[in-house]
Specification:
The structure is a homotrimer. In chain A, a hairpin with a 2-residue loop joins strand 8 and strand 9. Chain A is of the alpha+beta class. The N terminus of chain A is likely disordered. Chains B and C meet through helix 6 and helix 9 of B and helix 2 of C.
Chain lengths: 406, 406, 406
């Protein structure tokens, strides 16, 4: 690739300065923002210390002893439920020599016994006294390291800050009313999909924030969303939400905010009740939903962590950095825990729209990264429909680099 | 590999100085010239800004709307023919967000519509006004970026200089009389082969410039060329060329030259009319050839771009850097556009000698790179038959690094 | 991975100073000791210049003209036997242009003729006068470069020092009495296994030096070694060794030593005569062994080169760095040259214990490297049974970095 190495090195230094280097507002980012390993490490320091990252839903580890790994930036985090039913998040690193104590992606265990030297950690992270240690060795000082953990109606968030984490309540509080309408504590997962794509982590984020590409890339999603423009459903969406007691003022963060959160309620189109290829329901109503609202809720917890809630299913969407040019995209589909496939649940119908959409995005994004690495690439004006990218850039410079973009 | 990192870093600085560091004339190059990423980037800056690189033959995009990609050093260039029949070269980078606008290696199109956001560029590169842009947006400023393009009897050359390119006429002028004997504007491609090899780009170049390895590596080529030493064809080659009005003084550049060009007419051996395994013809005469000259023309446009012309076919030979230790070798075989397979054309016979030769070289070169990366490698005296490598080194230091080797 | 780049770079400088940076004695090493490319290069400079590395056994190249490659850190060394039967070690790099002169891993040859330009080196490394060289060219100055070579009862050691090598006698002398009990000069190889694992080279070394992991990782080896704890074989091991004239004071080097050598004689358990799954013999007695000693000899030549000798077979164990995070583990099994499969030799039985053990270690070690690359990894106290790792660390800092750890 023709990345300008000197330019890239210059940046590593410059971006700590007073301005956003080489960045023109309402334009795309310069090349090295998508390629520099040094810049990537700086971004990860921010993401690890400041963000609450959505990691899983509690229903993915329903029984005592259940565990599941969440991996980001080469880090492996164990999410597990102890014998009292409490959920924990631990770094998957034995306190003895550093071997992973858990080597399967998910399962059920009585304890984590390191496969190397059998140091054994209980499900609450406490170390059982290992044999053959010096008498002065105090096991209590060598429990598994906990990652900060937050829980919002079963949605599990971790923060990898080495010291204190930002307030979880401040992070989750404003979103809670939107989430709690759906009763996620009584949900269950029916489909999980992970894909690795060869792009910098900011490309899928930018892609997720704009509809400008939908007509080019997403035939199915475009059709479904196009239908949503027609709101002639008798009673208006606002009236219906009010009648159902579900009206909420939207959350819409500015660039100076901590997390750039959004929570917005949208209407579907005529005769449409869910985000499926034909607009019809794919599962029974979510636990605390009593009547079809003919709409859905779009939520950004932060630029990496998202959930869309329909009246019959929720989809968690994750963009997870792996390295400066590799990102993992993930989806977890949740339904009412009482839904039964073949009776009131049709998983294929449920997942099809977003599985197709994600596949289309992943192909386009891999190509996009390659194009950006050209010597001919240069930042250009964004379209009006890409204004959410501008908002992300403003937040990115404000928060990650501590420099204004105005 | 045991590359000396400190030595390599030292070079990055030193080679901009007054001499060719660590280089002894008539010896092979020091190790880091074949391994250093920093040095490679410096070389690419030179190759991109100063060379006219052979990219394709016009007959590979014969119809209006035809296009073909040429890729070098991570860069993708679109060669295309517009609706008026004019040929263009564009950087394959959407002016909006940087995605490639063309994602297939060759084909036919009415326009290039970016698969990401549908920005659409006509075949002459002009941008159709995209929707949803700010009123101040002027499409005329955001056409596809053109690469510099030159055309010599259908041979297409690009220059990736960001500003002005060197004169194409100065580049191509002295070679034109040799090329124009063959009527390439009425040629067509019959075989294309690309291979990736794990070597620095200078190794295949050096290999191409010496016959010293032929007896070891190329049994078939050695036999054909050995036969060529016997010139007892009655009339001498010089007499015949003179009689046919095809005599030309050879072009043979010195190290101070811009491009290190060569154009030389050679005789074949007794009873031999073409560069095939048995020396017999494999196709009908090239468009403007009227009688077998029993010889061929060897042309170096520059160290990366070559063409050999026989009376019945031409072979374009490309060495294209991909990264500091990966290079693409390519061949395009051209014949008279009227030749018909099974009648006056035998493609298998036509390509066999050079396909075998290239395969043999590619194997040897991959090993050679590995050997050079040994801690025991050190430059050694070149053989007399490797004098063309010395000439290349002289040019390389003069032109790429701006330092003399005397 | 979350390796701290700045910390890593800081080390490259700091470790040349007066202390062992970030290292607490009796703790595991900091992360960057297992990941830094710069540190790896520094270590390789030490390993190449100071160590005698076990490379093969002479019986692997038994006939005149036989050759075999030994590869380490991207370097390829030819071990060959010339027409007088003398063994040599050469860098596999043609003195002309640097191509490997030998491109098969083992075989028999009359000479090494470079496959590129046919420069031909005799089996003693002397260059035959190549054609087409300048008259001033003196072939005697361009023989294959020899690596330093030592031979201990057929065990071949190379030293890659560019100048003088350390004394081989000083290296091998103290170990010779242990080796010579077994008559390895009349041994032959019956099984060779090489595996690449994705770890820094120090992890398999540390693993090899401690038994703390055996109960977790090695069910079979643990059972065999557990049995060995019961020494009720009538006559004690010490008495028997004394009666057999095989008693030797153990070699046990301290951290200040050149090579950290060990040579120790151990007893097997009751009814056990060899290191096999059931403790019974798998081959006839080694050439100079006359009676089962019911014990074995454990030898570390240096941290990379090991041999374990049983009365019926020997196993050479190699840990060979490939890059900062790739290592090759190798085993060569030797038996009495007169042993015959199906008669007094059972190869499957012979190799099974160590093939299983090595496979188990390789899996654990690959995971261990990944865990160490976590941001949560930090050095921790070693177990009492890991005291040999502490000794290795002391030697490592003393010898590789020239700094004390006390």
């Amino acid at each position: 690739m023709s990345v300008d190495v000197q330019e890239r090195n210059r940046l590593s230094a410059a971006v700590v300065g007073e301005s956003a280097p080489d960045y023109k507002r309402k334009f795309s980012l310069p090349q090295y923002y998508y390629t520099s390993p040094e810049l990537y490490r700086k971004e990860m320091e921010f993401l690890r210390s400041k963000l609450w990252l959505m990691a899983a839903h509690e229903s993915q580890i329903p029984k005592n002893g259940d565990f599941k790994l969440f991996e980001i930036d080469g880090e492996s985090i164990i999410l597990c439920r102890d014998l009292q039913g409490d959920v924990h998040a631990f770094y998957n690193v034995c306190r003895h020599r550093g071997s992973p104590v858990c080597v399967t992606n998910e399962g059920n265990a009585k304890a984590f016994s390191c496969p190397y030297h059998s140091w054994t950690f209980m499900l609450d992270g406490t170390l059982k006294r290992p044999r053959a240690m010096d008498a002065s060795f105090d096991p209590k000082e060598w429990n598994l390291k906990a990652a900060h953990l937050g829980n919002l109606d079963g949605l599990l968030f971790v923060c990898l800050a080495k010291g204190e984490a930002p307030s979880f309540e401040e992070f989750a509080g404003r979103i809670r009313p939107f989430i709690s309408q759906y009763g996620l504590t009584k949900a269950k997962p029916v489909y999980v999909q992970d894909d690795l794509i060869v792009t910098n982590w900011k490309l899928p984020l930018e892609n997720y924030r704009e509809n400008y590409h939908i007509s080019s890339v997403h035939q199915d999603l475009g059709r479904v969303m196009g239908a949503a423009m027609d709101h002639s459903n008798g009673e208006s969406h606002a009236e219906r939400m009010s009648r159902l007691g579900r009206s909420l003022p939207m959350v819409y963060d500015e660039a100076e905010s901590l997390y750039l959160q959004q929570a917005i309620q949208f209407a579907f189109g005529k005769d449409q009740v869910s985000a499926t290829q034909d607009g019809s329901a794919a599962s029974s109503l979510m636990p605390t939903i009593t009547e079809w609202s003919k709409g859905w809720t779009y939520i950004n917890f932060n630029p990496l962590s998202h959930i869309n809630l329909q009246d019959d299913y929720a989809i968690m969407v994750f963009f997870t950095p792996v390295s400066e040019t590799v990102t993992k995209t993930s989806m977890v589909f949740l339904v009412n825990e009482d839904a039964v496939e073949g009776k009131d649940l049709d998983v294929k119908k449920l997942i099809d729209l977003y599985v197709v959409t994600m596949a289309e995005d992943n192909v386009v994004l891999g190509r996009h990264q390659k194009g950006i690495e050209s010597g001919a690439y240069e930042p250009a004006p964004l379209a009006l429909e890409e204004d959410q990218i501008v908002l992300f850039h403003d937040w990115y410079f404000n928060r990650v680099h501590g420099v204004p973009t105005a």
